[in-house]
Amino acid sequence: MSERQRVALPRRRPVETATTATLRSWRAVNALVDQSAPVGDGHLFNQMRLSAPAPLVQRKEPQSDGMTGAFTTGDTAPTDSAINPLVGLKRGDGLNYGTWDLRPRVKLLQHKLNEKTGAGLNVDGMWGPKTSAALETFMLSRSTVPAEIVDQDTADALLDRRKETPGPGPQPIPPGPQPTEAPYNQTLEDVLDAVWLQYQLTFEGQRNGLHRLEKDLATIEKPKNTLVEVLKDAGKAALDALLGWGGGALRGPIKAALAGLGETIAKDGVDKVFDKAQESAGTEVGKKVDELGNEDGPTLETFLEAQRAALEEASSQTQENFLLETRAKLRLPAEGEPVSSGPEDPRVVRAKKLLDAVKRERPQAFQKQYDESLAKWAIAQAQSKLGTMDSPSMSVGEDKVKTTDMSKAEPGMPGVLTIEIEGTRPELPVKITGAKIAGLSEKTRQALERQQKSILDLGMPRYASGKVEINTGLGSILNFTKPTIRIAQNETGDLFERESTEGGKEWLKKKARPYEEVLTEDLVKEGMRMVWEEIDRKRLSDVPGGLKGP
Questions:
Q1: With respect to CATH, is domain 3-58+78-158 assigned 1.10.101.10?
Q2: Of residues 547 and 182, which shows the higher confidence score?
Q3: pLDDT of 282 strictly over 70
Q4: Residue-wise over 475-490: b if at least 16 C-beta within 10 A, else e?
Q5: Which of 161, 170, 238, 303 lies at 20 to 30 Å from 57 by C-alpha?
Q6: Phi-psi region of 306 (alpha: psi -120 to 50; beta: other; left: phi over 0)
Q7: What is the pLDDT of residue 482?
Q8: Contact by Cβ (8 Å): 378, 384
Q9: Are 93 and 373 in contact (CB under 8 A)?
Q10: Tens digits of residue pLDDT in 311-321
Q11: What is the rounded distance in angstroms from the CA atom of residue 156 to the CA atom of residue 82?
Q12: Is 186-334+341-385 in CATH node 1.20.120?
């Protein structure tokens, strides 16, 4: 466009601020959200919830024209006028200091500009000259005066939210029932806004959990560098434990709370959100570990920073997925379902169930992220020292799960939970007399004790050793040599015999078959399994003296 053409275009008016009715609409969204939820200073929704709201258009319920039966709206509101996250964005957002919390919204803008104009923008959430040029191209294509702020009309056009215009007048209608779209429901839109916000707060809680873990691990007894691939696997495993299909600690409870509401809401409202998060998080962990590598190799800082970056990317991707796909699916009624514009609409009921499920699980995101990352950091230390192996008992698809090789485990190794035991008669349970772990700080050891999980559920590699008593015909000889069992178990439950004495092996055999006259080597493994069952049921809080350091 030449300078003369640009000057000839009419000057546009500034974007209008929100009306009182709009403010009421926005407060209705916030009223559905737990007001006590912590929101960090850098959170995406700070400016939208806690300060002056961005320019919005009042949402109105479509009205029948009384003649054709078609739904129309007033001149000031589009048919689908849900809050548009692109409205009010301007040049410099996501780039200038103090606007970084707007990056997810700018990413959505860049993605849509690439779609509409083929601009080939780098979707990085930072509005610079290239984003401005792409927006100008899009606005000129619509015969709109270029500007470096996104108004309501431009935002709606980018997200394909069209205004309907009245026809020339009443038109004849063929006889018979006419298909109609489900009525617009203001309450449904407000609830879906609240669901969206709760998902974002969930990711914020997970990032806060990592910040707390980093602080608690600031001083560790013997910090060790870890292998690159081990660190990548540990970071992905920590996130998979929360977001993944295999019993994800966040995904699972939310879906369970929606039982009986049909497959659609669990699939579109939960699985699609977490699928996108899991995919983007797994990719980002690997990239970040490579990026942060240094001459000394990856460290604890790399492990935590990679997960933080992955959660930020997951939050951004799920936001885009929810706004562009999930939300539209949740607006659709079930086949033959009566719908209305009121709060009793079945779509509203389903959306509120989803909101309640996410809200109920969100406060636990902090602790679950802390726990999973702490366990996976311990495993990463153990694997760096002992190496990995393919678990004979666990696989994902056709690939075996990589797990710690405990065939060379020794007491006191970093990341290995070392347990001291005593055994009397084989038919009686073993007694735990102590437990310790290296490579963790005092604060994290105390956190493990407070979890009140069983030793098995801590998910760490374990090594146990201690004296036992033998009462056989050779008892005096075997007892004279102080029979000892030394056994190990990795995080996936694979068993390892670690050079128990002959008397200890005999005790393990008796543990498996107390009255068996013919004893075989296979009974040693069975005895080990029984001992670990007795140990794994205990909690660290039951161990005398608690969990010690090295």
A1: yes
A2: 547
A3: yes
A4: eeebbeeebbbbbbbb
A5: 170
A6: alpha
A7: 76
A8: no
A9: no
A10: 888 888 888 88
A11: 10
A12: yes
Q: What is the DSSP string of 55-109?
A: P-------EE-SSS--EE--TT--SS-PPPTTTT-BTTTTTSTT-GGGHHHHHHH
Residue 274 burial (C-beta neighbours within 10 Å; 0-12, 13-18, 19+): buried
Q: Structure tokens of 314?
A: 């997951």
Distances (CA, A) of 515 to 343, 428, 455, 511, 519: 69, 14, 30, 9, 10
* Range with the poorest average pLDDT among 331-335, 397-401, 482-486: 397-401
Quote the distance between the C-alpha of residue 381 and its chain's center.
23
Q: How far apart are CA 151 and CA 15, in angstroms?
A: 6
Q: Please check whether residue 314 is in contact with residue 282, taking contact to mean a CB–CB distance below 8 angstroms.
A: no
Give per-residue pLDDT as tens, 415-450: 999 999 999 888 899 999 999 999 898 999 999 888
- Checking if the pLDDT of 68 tops 60, the result is no
Encoded tokens for 117: 């104009």
C-beta of residue 248 within 8 angstroms of C-beta of residue 270:
no
Q: What is the CA 143 to chain-centroid distance, rounded?
A: 42
Task: Tell me the C-alpha distance between 550 and 502, whole Å.
Answer: 28
Global pTM reads 0.63
Distance of alpha carbon 446 from its chain centroid, rounded? 25
Tell me, what amino acid is at 223? P
Q: What's the CA gap between 491 and 293, in Å, rounded?
A: 26
Q: Other CB atoms closer than 10 Å to residue 357's CB: what's the count?
A: 23
Contact, 135 vs 148, CB < 8 A?
Answer: yes
Which tokens sit at 231?
Answer: 């660190």
Q: Which residues are CB-contacts of 343 (< 8 A; sequence separation ≥ 6)?
A: 187
Q: What is the mean pLDDT of residues 48-57?
A: 37
The ranges assigned to domains in the chain are 3-58+78-158, 186-334+341-385, 407-548
- Longest C-alpha distance within the chain, in Å? 109
Q: Is the CB of residue 390 less than 8 Å from the CB of residue 402?
A: yes
